[in-house]
Design goal:
Layout (H helix, E strand, L loop, with lengths): L1 H11 L5 E4 H7 L5 H13 L4 E4 H4 E4 L1
Antiparallel strand pairs: 1-3, 2-3
Length: 63
């Protein structure tokens, strides 16, 4: 998970958002339904990020 936080933080240095696609997300959070969305939200909050879902189950933007 540290790698994901590092990647998001690095990208946010030069952009207003960081898109994370399903293949990368599934490495950290296997698809287990609705509980997974709560885990994304908790992750974002823990790291001071704002989470936005675009194109259901395809892309999560962190800001």
């Amino acid at each position: 998970m540290k790698k994901l936080v590092s990647r998001i933080s690095k990208e946010l240095e030069n952009a207003n958002y960081c898109g994370v696609y399903e293949p990368e997300l599934s490495r950290y959070w296997p698809n287990n339904g609705n509980a997974r969305e709560n885990e994304f939200a908790s992750f974002a909050e823990l790291h001071g990020l704002v989470l936005r879902l675009l194109q259901a189950r395809v892309l999560r933007n962190f800001r």
